[in-house]
Structure formats: structure tokens, C-alpha cells
Design brief:
This protein is an alpha+beta fold. The protein has seven helices and five strands. The protein has helices at residues 14-54, 111-114, 118-127, 133-171, 178-210, 221-231, 233-236; strands at 58-65, 73-80, 84-86, 89-91, 103-110.
Length: 244
């Protein structure tokens, strides 16, 4: 049988995993506290653009407040840019002609709520043992875009769920929007599952990229005969005289 020969790794003991997890958690939380101001200012316009793409009927104005006395948060001011039709009801963007666009609501997200699920991915990626530096670097490289995806899923879903919930309440429409259901799914444990899944993908991909492979090539007829007679003449049933 030809193919790759892989070695089964011995899993670390639970006590070692706990120690690694505690150290990784400390490093991640301290790092987030140190970089939260520049990261918050950088992500606010990115979230704004993503929300406007997902909900083109609204105009978003975002800002980041990094003052420690007030509290660090990202603010989203939502305005209606076009007509919204829901179950036969219409919400117009202007109350009166020539007036300012209708303000739907204002959302303030504390910075601690901005990063909920991706730190779990980073902690698992750092805490799980790696065979070497190469595998660890591959793991981090794969995890980075996955963590960005987690952040881009989490924050806009909060804003969009609040927007559509407010619009439905203003129009008096019963029911729950899809964004609200999606947000409830994430808050109910789906976000943690997604974070663990992203970490598993990064760890597995890095192991796949850096794993050593042993490729066995088939021997030709003459080489196979020579190998068989040289290793075990009696077992092969070939007389040593054939070698001369």
C-alpha cells in the first residue's frame, strides 16, 4: 500500500493544557487592553461600510470614543436613506420635504462587547501545543483572517438586529427579523462554537501544511527481485544463484 505515513501525536495532559490556557488568556487580554484604542478607531469606519452594504436603505455614521473617563465605545448613528417596505407598511426617509433624513436610532457598543468571540480563537491557537516554530507560525497566519471574519460577523449583526427591530416597532409590525434570530443564535452559544471551530481549522490547517510526508515509490520488476532475494532468499523462494 502506497501513500503518506503519518505519526499519531500524543495529546498533552489536561494539567498542561490548563496552564497553557491560563498563560494564553493572560497574554491575549493584556494585548487587547493595550491596543484597543487604535484598533477601535480603525474598525469603526470598517463596520460602518459593511453595515451600509448589508442594509443599503440606511446611512450609518460611526465614531469611536477612547476617553477612559467616559468609557471606550463605538457609536453608530443610523439614518434612513430610502423607503423601507415591511408587510405592506412603508417607512419614509423624510418626515417633511427638505428636512434632514429620519434618524432611526443611536447604538453604543462598549469596546468589551466588540471583541467577544475572536479572543477564544486566539487563546486556543496559542494554548494548543505545536511541533515547532514553523507550525506555530502557520497556525497564526491561518487564524488571523479567520478572526477578522469573526469580528466582521459579530459587530454588524448587533447593529443590524437593533436597526430592524426598531423599524418594526416603529411601523407596528409583528414578528422577528432574520438578523434578530441570527443574533440570538450567536449570543446563545453559536458564537463560542464558531470561535472554537475557527481555532480547530487553524490548528488542523497548520498541521496539514507542515506535516512530514513519506512518499513510497513502487519498485520496478528487476529492483523488486533484487530486494526480495537480498533481504530474505529463503522466504522469497528465489535461489541465490539467480543473482550471478
Amino acid at each position: 500500500m502506497f501513500g503518506c505515513i503519518t505519526r499519531i501525536d500524543v495529546l498533552p495532559t489536561p494539567s498542561k493544557l490548563v496552564v497553557r490556557a491560563v498563560i494564553a488568556t493572560t497574554l491575549v487580554l493584556c494585548s487587547l487592553y493595550a491596543i484597543e484604542r487604535p484598533v477601535g478607531a480603525l474598525l469603526a469606519p470598517l463596520f460602518q461600510r459593511e453595515i451600509e452594504i448589508l442594509a443599503p436603505a440606511f446611512t450609518i455614521r460611526s465614531s469611536y470614543n477612547g476617553q477612559e473617563k467616559v468609557g471606550q465605545w463605538i457609536r453608530f448613528d443610523v439614518y434612513l436613506a430610502g423607503k423601507v417596505h415591511i408587510a405592506g407598511h412603508v417607512l419614509a426617509p423624510f418626515v417633511t420635504p427638505g428636512a434632514e433624513p429620519r434618524s432611526v436610532l443611536e447604538i453604543r457598543l462598549p469596546f468589551s462587547d466588540v471583541f467577544k468571540y475572536f479572543p477564544l480563537t486566539l487563546i486556543l491557537v496559542l494554548a494548543w501545543p505545536a511541533k515547532g516554530v514553523k507550525e506555530f507560525l502557520w497556525r497564526c497566519a491561518v487564524a488571523m483572517p479567520l478572526m477578522v471574519i469573526l469580528v466582521l460577523i459579530d459587530v454588524p449583526s448587533v447593529v443590524l438586529a437593533n436597526i430592524w427591530n426598531e423599524v418594526r416597532n416603529e411601523l407596528g409590525v409583528q414578528g422577528v427579523s432574520g438578523w434578530v434570530l441570527f443574533r440570538r443564535c450567536l449570543s446563545g452559544g453559536g458564537g463560542l462554537v464558531l470561535g472554537c471551530f475557527m481555532a480547530g481549522v487553524a490548528i488542523g490547517a497548520a498541521k496539514r501544511f507542515t506535516g512530514k510526508r513519506r512518499v513510497v515509490t513502487p519498485l520496478s520488476g528487476g529492483d523488486a527481485l533484487m530486494r526480495a532475494t537480498t533481504d530474505s532468499p529463503k522466504a522469497s523462494g528465489v535461489a541465490p544463484a539467480l543473482l550471478s
